[in-house]
């Protein structure tokens, strides 16, 4: 079964610690994305990657870092510099990221991060 | 740049009522349009899509028509069920990175 996995479902960390959220896809998609969702809010784009070894900042990249060493993996690190890291984090992928579509995104189940 | 504006919620309905969620967009070129649904505690799932003007996307009783003249893609369902309670997102993809609306929370009461 093809899809996107995110682990863990729930993550708890102390303030000041970096934490890495996992995202893996077996859809053979070139593009991958990380979004943040706060209660009652829409999606905010953190980072996206159109191809291996390349990624671009989204709207709220400060305090986050990513890597794209393999096509199927796009881990997100929430650093201690992120002022308010508690949120629901969603990873997604698509065949590609732009051009003549349609390029629907496939989403993982999300990771709920709580920092205290 | 591209953007999507959708009706603010929350929307509360009784079972079997008619649902409509408005969505308008701004885009260069000819984007593809989507509706996604998010159930509590889960990721988003594609509900339906349309790739060109006058296309109608449909799934699970939901419909939306790509209206180029009004730059709209309104979501409709004739008779909602309690199980339709979710957050609905309008989105587009085109010559630049995908854009999502802010989401509309729909609650259906029995």
What does this structure look like?
The complex is a heterodimer of chains A (116) and B (110). In chain A, a hairpin with a 5-residue loop joins strand 4 (31-37) and strand 5. In chain A, the strands form two sheets. In chain A, strands 2, 4, 5, 6, 9, 10 and 11 form a seven-stranded mixed β-sheet that branches. A four-stranded antiparallel β-sheet of chain A has the order 1-3-8-7, with no helix packed on it. The mean pLDDT of chain A is 92. Chain A is 0% helix and 48% strand. Chain A is built from no helices and eleven strands. Chain A is mainly beta and 116 residues long. Chain B is mostly beta strands. Chain B has strands at 3-6, 11-14, 19-21, 23-26, 32-38, 44-50, 56-59, 62-65, 75-77, 86-93, 99-100, 104-109. In chain B, the strands form three sheets. In chain B, strands 2, 5, 6, 10, 11 and 12 form a six-stranded mixed β-sheet that branches. A four-stranded antiparallel β-sheet of chain B has the order 3-9-8-7, with no helix packed on it. A two-stranded antiparallel sheet of chain B has the order 1-4. In chain B, strand 7 and strand 8 (62-65) form a beta hairpin. Chain B is globular. The chains are: A mainly beta (116), B mainly beta (110). Chains A and B meet through strand 5, strand 9 and strand 10 of A and strand 5, strand 6 and strand 10 of B.
Characteristic key phrases:
heterodimer; A: 116 residues; 11 strands; 0% helix; globular; B: 110 residues; mainly beta; 6-stranded mixed β-sheet; 12 strands
In short, what is this structure?
With 116 residues, chain A is mainly beta. Chain A has strands spanning 4-7, 10-13, 19-25, 31-37, 43-51, 54-57, 64-66, 76-78, 87-94, 106-107, 111-115.
**What is the string of helix and strand elements of chain B?**
EEEEEEEEEEEE
| Mean of pLDDT of chain A | 92
Order of helices and strands of chain A: EEEEEEEEEEE
The chain-level structural class of chain A is mainly beta
**Overall 3D shape of chain B:** globular
């Amino acid at each position: 079964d093809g899809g996107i996995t995110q682990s863990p479902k729930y993550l708890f960390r102390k303030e000041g610690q970096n934490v890495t959220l996992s995202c893996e896809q077996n859809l053979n998609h070139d593009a991958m994305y990380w979004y943040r969702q706060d209660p009652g809010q829409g999606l905010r784009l953190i980072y996206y990657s159109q191809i291996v070894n390349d990624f671009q900042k989204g709207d709220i990249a400060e305090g986050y870092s990513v890597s794209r060493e393999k096509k199927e993996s796009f881990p997100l690190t929430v650093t201690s510099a992120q002022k308010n890291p508690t949120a629901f984090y969603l990873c997604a992928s698509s065949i590609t990221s732009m051009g003549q579509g349609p390029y629907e995104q496939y989403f993982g189940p999300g990771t709920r991060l709580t920092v205290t | 740049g591209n953007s999507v504006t959708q009706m603010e919620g929350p929307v509360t309905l009784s079972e079997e009522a008619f649902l409509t969620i408005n969505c308008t967009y701004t885009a260069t070129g000819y984007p593809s349009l989507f509706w996604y649904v998010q159930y509590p505690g889960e990721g988003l799932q594609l509900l339906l899509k349309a790739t060109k003007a006058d296309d109608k996307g449909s799934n699970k009783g939901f419909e939306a028509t790509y209206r180029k003249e009004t730059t709209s893609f309104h979501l409709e369902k004739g008779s909602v069920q309690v199980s339709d309670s979710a957050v609905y997102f309008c989105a587009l993809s085109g010559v630049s990175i995908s854009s999502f609306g802010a989401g509309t929370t729909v609650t259906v009461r029995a």
